């Protein structure tokens, strides 16, 4: 049995704090768990905190982009927070721009941006 990344609910936002290097199965489990939690809770936003990640590979980079796309299709905006400079450089070197993925320097800024985005979306509805 693999370890699972916890998906925590804070109001209408889901918080995913990745605290360990991800194995491929953990990435796939996270994708399933997150999409189910969005549907089950009606979450309007997702924050993925990667501040503990020292390195990423192309699979993890694609996972971030895929999770953001799945979340958006399910009605939740996604913000990736806490990206280290080395991780950003690695993603660029791998040719992964994470198109469509919003980022913020830290959790506080990410939550602020997410609340603004979800408020804007609610105002247009």
Mean pLDDT, all residues: 89
Multimerization state: single chain
Structural class: alpha/beta
- For the largest sheet, list the strands in their spatial order: 1-2-3-4-5
The geometry reads as: globular
Low-pLDDT windows of residues: none
Helix content: 40-55%
| Number of contiguous helices | 4
Radius of gyration: 14 Å
Ends apart, CA distance between termini: 42 Å
Q: What can be said about the biggest beta sheet?
A: 5 strands, mixed
How big a fraction of the residues is strand? Answer: 15-25%
In total, the number of strands is: 5
What pattern of helices and strands is seen along the backbone?
A: EEHEHEHEH
Main attributes?
125 residues; 49% helix; alpha/beta; five-stranded mixed sheet
How does this structure look, described?
With 125 residues, this protein is α/β, with parallel strands linked by helices. It is 49% helix and 18% strand. The chain has a 5-stranded mixed β-sheet with strand order 1-2-3-4-5, with helices on both faces. The longest helix has 18 residues, at 24-41. The protein is globular. The mean pLDDT is 89.
In short:
The chain is an alpha/beta fold and 125 residues long.
Helices and strands in order:
Layout: E1 7-10, E2 13-17, H1 24-41, E3 45-49, H2 58-73, E4 77-81, H3 85-93, E5 102-104, H4 107-124
Parallel strand pairs: 2-3, 3-4, 4-5
Antiparallel strand pairs: 1-2
């Amino acid at each position: 049995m693999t370890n699972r990344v916890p998906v925590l609910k804070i109001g209408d936002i889901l918080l995913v704090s990745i605290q360990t290097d991800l194995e491929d199965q953990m990435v796939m489990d996270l994708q399933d768990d997150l999409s189910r939690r969005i549907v089950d809770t009606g979450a309007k936003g997702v924050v993925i905190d990667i501040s503990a990640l020292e390195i990423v590979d192309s699979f993890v980079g694609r996972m971030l982009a895929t999770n953001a796309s799945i979340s958006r299709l399910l009605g939740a905006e996604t913000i990736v927070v806490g990206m280290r400079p080395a991780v950003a450089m690695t993603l660029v070197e791998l040719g992964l721009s994470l198109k469509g993925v919003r980022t913020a320097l830290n959790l506080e800024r990410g939550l602020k941006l997410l609340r603004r985005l979800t408020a804007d979306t609610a105002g247009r509805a």
